[in-house]
Amino acid sequence: MSSAASRIVIKSAREIELMRAAGRLVHAILCEIREHVRPGTTTAELDEIASRRIREAGAVALFKGVVNPQARFPFPASICSSVNEEVVHGIPGDRPLADGDIVSIDCGVRLENYCGDAAITIAVGRPSPTAERLIAVTQEALALAIREIRPYARWSMIARQMQQYVERHGFNVVREFVGHGIGRQMHEEPKVPNYVEGDDRHGDFELLPGMTLAIEPMVTAGRPEVEYRDADRWTVVTKDGSLAAHFEHTVAVTERAAVVLSNGS
User: What domains are defined for the chain?
Assistant: First the structure.
């Protein structure tokens, strides 16, 4: 067993239900944000929706105040809002959304000491055919992974299927950012990649009942390479300026399959 695998925390049925409550709040927030995404709305307005809902629920925004060594300041918002070529960790601001944009909203909360985390990509107004296909393919890559989860399977088998599905549709999977274990902390072991490099299964792990994972494919319409935007060193963008989409669910592995904890159920 790898040292990372030995640090994976298996959750009890009670803990999984507490995570489901956190996931339910995240789902409600994302649903409300979706209703407000339209041309002219700013991402700061979307962040205020999330901040209010989190406050009212007595929860804590997972992202706000997070410090990363490469960033120029702690993350200042409750959600990440990443527009067009922005992949992840976009900072909400006064930029109004425009017709044809796509915006990825990532939201995480801690409720009763347990975390929920999910993301969606939303088309603003009338998106291009490429943007529509990109969103659909990224969402289906996540759905495929959830359908394929079985106890005692290897994650690399699922990651390979996700990658093949995305590439078959002419898109690419981001390598630098991956999913993660989740529970009492936002980021726990294991790392959960959405790809496999050749035959290299370094960091692969066995899916065990009681594991809780945040699975989050990030897909680009162009090349897969990304970089940090220098202005804040938070926002991750595609190097070639191509569109990117991002979907995420918090999922528990059971004795039979996977249960989604962040879909409102």
Answer: 3-260 (3.90.230.10)
